[in-house]
Amino acid sequence: MTGRLWAIAYNTFREAVRDRVLYNLVLFALLIVGASIIFGQVSIEINRIVLINLGLTAISLFGIVIAIFIGIGLVSKEIDKKTLYTVLAARPVRRREFIAGKFLGLVMTLTVNALLMSVGFFAAVLYVSHGLGRGDLQLVTAIYFILLEFVLITALALLFSTFSTPVFSSIFAFAIFAIGSFAEDLRSFASMATGAAHLVISTAAYMVPNFAALNVVSQVAHGTPVEPKLILLNSLYVLVYTAAVLTASVWIFERRNLK
Amino acid sequence: MAAIEIQGLEKVYRTGFFSHKLKRGLMPLTLSVEEGEVFGCLGPNGAGKTTTLKLLLGLVFPTSGTATILGRPLGDIEVKRHIGYLPEQPYFYDHLTAVELLDYYARLSGVDARERKRKVERALSRVGMSDAARTQLRKFSKGMLQRVGIAQAIVHDPKLLLLDEPMSGLDPIGRREVRDLVQQLNEEGKTVFFSTHILSDAETLCDRVAVLNKGELKGVGVVADLLREKLGEVEVVFSGAQAVAELSSLGALCHATGDVVRALLPERSLEPVLAALRKNQARLISVTPVQATLEDYFLERVGDESPTKPNEVKA
Amino acid sequence: MTTVRAQTTYALLLALLLGASTLLVRQIDQVRGDTVLQEMLYIPSPKVVKRLSLGYSGLLADVYWTRVVQYFGEKHKAQSKHYLILEPLLEMTTELDPKLLPAYHFGSVFLAQKPPEGAGDPQAAARLVEKGIRENPGAWRLYYDLGYIYWLELKDPARAADAFERGSQVPGALPWMHVMAAALKAHAGETETAIYMWTNILKTTEDKNLKANAISRLRCLRVDTEVKLLQDRVEVFMQKSGHKPASWQELISAGLLRGAPKDPAGKAYQLADGRVQVAQPDLFPFITRGLPPGEEAGDLPTEKGFKPVKIK
Questions:
Q1: Which of B253, C82, C153, C235 fits a disulfide with B264 by CB distance 3.0 to 4.6 angstroms?
Q2: Is A257 in Cβ contact with B61 (below 8 Å)?
Q3: What separation in angstroms does the CA of B154 have from each of A107, B57, B205, C267?
Q4: Residue C60 has pLDDT above 60, yes or no
């Protein structure tokens, strides 16, 4: 089984890498990193702060866009274009192996993505700060959290594409990312509500993917260190939540008639 | 052993998300395909041929009924190593080259790493794609894609082949090549089940055929037997319109174009007709026994049912 | 087709994983705690944020308003002495949505009041309310917020009277605004005026926190009134008997009281060395009388003049 899983994952990775859209977006992100060096030319401290804020935000947002678009393509496009039929019909491939393999392939792609963009980013930081210091370790944490964001949104994009068209899947994915970014405020709001509203909003507030906690960009830009406990908790959370989303995806996909 | 054994397999769809109207993709079908035969599934578009294949392959789930493939029930994963499938209007990962694609599929089918390269190349040469092997699929024409499709269906040397409209998109030369290939594969002992709406292909290739229309099985038969039915007629072509009158009185149906006449008559009337021609000094051009075609059988089974109306069912 | 067994496995697994994720979220929220709000201190300018919000500033204002309430609630519960981020949060909220009246009402009280009942910055409160008035000229209620700040927090009854007067002239203003203006100008009884004001505020406001605050104010004013009355009776007793009473019983025996007096919290008022005191000053954050000796007087001016009285 692992042989097949790896084959599917590698094929997915290869497909993403040969897709020219990917390169354009990566390039775009790097351009913004470069541009932010110019924007911050007011003072030296502001320079670094602006670079980190703008640079990391660009990497995060562009990465999310890439994750959503390729993630949607994982299943939606395959069903649309029927490339999936020959894989599932006449091969000893279980549907869940297919989903898992696809997901792995995309995570691989996004990791490489994130690494590429980070290299550009760190090069810019090096230039602006004339060297790397201890505070820059926190930047690695921020990038790690951004990668966790990618994993989360990819799993969700995959889930949506098991039952929805490419257009709607992308809409749902962007929407859930926006809502998840305000998850902490949603929980505050839930705690202020009463009665039935409280129950409904609380459920939503806890079920929604917790993107809010993965955004430490301004914190890190101002040199406030990230608590190690948070790193552990966020990692566990993404692991557990992703597993849940994939379970749901497999469940839906295995029941689906591929007309 | 039956390569495919279908028992009452049925598929009913709902026409819409909220509607109660049902559409029958396939009425309960009972059919079996023997090992080593070439079996054709005929029918107009929408007859249920593709639905049957998808049900067998686990792409679509039956509403009722069962089937076995090579003795294993539907849903068995391991038996898929021994099946090859070509979908209708296939589309493959176009970022890959032909070799990469086949290698990927061979890998998924469990072909051993040591044998893979050889099998991939062999499959490609059998479909005549050796030259284009290292070109990306996005540059392929429809015919080339069809060939690649067949290649991926045979690369892992399966015992059973399920082909959905294998001739589509090919020019006459291509179709001839595919026909030859199917015959070769059959000679190697493989069972071939294919669906088509081109009757002449089925006629040449198949041992047995089934006719489907609007989701229902209309008839199954051995091709040789079906064709023999209409035997007993002869077509005589001659020049000499003067003989027409006498031939008509013998029961021949004559059609004249200028001086050349085509006459259709029962076989037993051949001797008297030839004598009449000599008597009337007509010049004989040819004598040909009339073969029944599959088309006759088909039209007879499908009858005057219009294949364009949707087969709705009141729930 | 997936078996029933497989499907039950998926369902159970899903439930388990979602449960685990909820628990993790609660842990994460605890660790994250103030981090979200600390970020307020980094934001260079609310105007920039408004521009970045791409037309969704109203929604974003609501988000920040949620944070205001959450922040205050947490700090207040912990009886915190520092409300550093309250002003930036309120500024951001009102910049994003200048017409969000609840924010101004909230800010006027909870920015002005002394900790732990507020941020203790009446100047900031006044600025906020004045901004609110500029942006919402028809909101007469903002004038009583302003009046309260000038009168009770900034000790400027003349300006306060002016605010109430201006407010009373806004169409739709309730009559009590005019009454307040007159009362302040005439230096009427402070305690009574305050009771009148807070009673009307209590009637007018819908905000949970502001209601609770008004009720607390009124209870404290009741304590002030009761302590004064009791102190007067004690004076009478001391004049009559020539010594300080040791307990309420003595006053009851002297016919000056009918029973042992209790404060609004239900605890008996205490008599210590001839002084009337409340048993638990913490329950009454706004009282100016009945505090133990050495505690400074509150912000309510006495009848004798507008000077705070130190009780020895």
A1: B253
A2: yes
A3: 32, 16, 18, 93
A4: yes
